[in-house]
Amino acid sequence: MFITNSTYRTYLVTDSTMIPESSTFIDQVTESIMGGASMVQLREKTLSTRDFIERAKAVRKVTKEFCIPLIINDRIDVALAVNADGVHVGQDDMPAITVRKILGEKKLIGVTCSNPEEVKQVCEEGVADYIGVGTVFKTNTKKDVKDPKGCGPIGIRKMLKVLGDHNRTAKKEIKVVAIGGINHDNAGSVLYQCSLPGLQSLTGLAVVSCIMASEEPKYATADFDRYYQEQELPTMDNLDGETAQDIVKMIKGVRSNSPLVHHITNNVVKNFSANVTLALGASPIMSELANEFEEFTCKFKNLSLVLNLGTPIPEQIELFKSAMKVYNAAGHHIVFDPVAAGASLARLQCCKDILNAGYVSVIKGNLGEISALLKLTSGYSSTERNSINRVVSRGVDSVDSEVEEKDIFELGEAVARDFKCVVVITGSTNYIFDGICLSANVRSPVRIAKVPGGSKLMGSITGTGCSLGSTIGAFLAGCATDVNGTPIFIDPFSAVWGAVTYYNVAGSVAGKIGTGPGSFMINFLDCLNDVEKLEPILKEKKLFGNFTEAP
Ligand code: 3NM
């Protein structure tokens, strides 16, 4: 049998306990294969040996007809009895080395891994053809998983890093499928988020209940194919180059489209963030009513979500997660502000839960906050991190004087690459990193933009950091369509650069007028609102190629 990467694409793992009443086990498997299942693992935990063999023979007949591999879970004897194409073992089953000795070189061997150490061991043993990494998300199908909550894309990427390092130099590439809680709601983002561009991505997805329990297993399987097509990352070639250079055009887009910027944010800054959003010409909404989120995403094209971790409570984290699901499904941008991420392990855990629950287009924070997130990355991007490791978040204020610029570059790049998003590190100079427009196969450079801070007075009133999140949200949503409401593609990096630049130019102009924090706040809102006043300065600002240093 000819095994390629696409052999692993939609890997059906069977379970006979969840077949719909109107169907039979073998019908479910056959239909799934007809829908495009590219590999089948027969997984039976309660059948007698004799019944297991009978079932394996029946499935073998179908897999043979469709020329796809049949893998037997755990039972080497059953695999031998029916001449299956391979065996899949877990960490407590027969060691892969022993399986290889029994089965010989021609059969496929898969091993389940739940952490980087187990991946490392499989790589060192060098006998497996593929690994199954998981559990990605909570699943009801397997009860004895090591991490019932799921390791999420963050955990999967840490395993991919170990595998990718191995595969880079190995004679034989070990393939990898993700498993656990994968369904049609999350398959696209699993493929997108569980990859390290230029190093390692998933070869396929392994699925049980989403197919085995489906009334329409053929279509349930076929649907998985389209998620692979969606995995094309945007590249520099398909950007709207003209708009990407023109902040005035962007802010005018915000004003004419009047986007809705949905905030779930902390109580301290709600008022100021709403005023900043209004001053930009966008509409703020501070909704925490989960039932209406889907209505927003159906109703509005120019919409974004700003999640701010300023005053977290468990209910709010759950609200974040449900909002993310709705916004991700509708394809609207999400801006995440990991306020004081490094202040405690509990807060970092909140960030981990949030970033595992879905995809955010932008992460905005100060140096302390972004360096805390470094702990959630796979480490595939960075080499040395000495001075970054010295940075400890001190509440919401970060210390940037001790850190060299090259370390800031390394930090931003690492977080942007891992989370495949735009990262903004705020401070007296703002740094923006593009982890979105990367090539999937080669290690392409991360675009970096540098924007000078606006005014020292911005630090004298509360909420200027958080309201930058609102501004980014307004620009992303404002640039999502042209004035006629037709969707246009402007890359998030350019929109974020436009937002950060506009915000700081307004701050700089306001800072020169006022005498103290009170008047500054008012002048700042006025300046944000006065495009004509800022226009001459904005016209000077350009994104230069790969790197911009604003004059
Ligand atoms: N192995 P579903 S999770 C068979 O984590 C299996 O190793 C897992 O089922 C692992 O697609 C799992 O229905 C069950 O969530 C996955």
TrEMBL record:
Keywords: ATP-binding, Kinase, Magnesium, Metal-binding, Nucleotide-binding, Thiamine biosynthesis, Transferase
Protein's UniProt keywords contain Nucleotide-binding: yes
Keyword Nucleus: no
Gene3D superfamilies noted in UniProt: 3.40.1190.20, Aldolase class I
Family annotation (InterPro entries): Aldolase_TIM (IPR013785), Hyethyz_kinase (IPR000417), Ribokinase-like (IPR029056), ThiamineP_synth_sf (IPR036206), ThiamineP_synth_TenI (IPR022998), TMP_synthase (IPR034291)
Domain Thiamine phosphate synthase/TenI: 11-210
Pathway where it operates: Cofactor biosynthesis; thiamine diphosphate biosynthesis; thiamine phosphate from 4-amino-2-methyl-5-diphosphomethylpyrimidine and 4-methyl-5-(2-phosphoethyl)-thiazole: step 1/1; Cofactor biosynthesis; thiamine diphosphate biosynthesis; 4-methyl-5-(2-phosphoethyl)-thiazole from 5-(2-hydroxyethyl)-4-methylthiazole: step 1/1
Protein name from the UniProt record: Thiamine biosynthetic bifunctional enzyme
Species this chain originates from: [Candida] anglica
Upper lineage: Eukaryota, Fungi, Dikarya, Ascomycota, Saccharomycotina
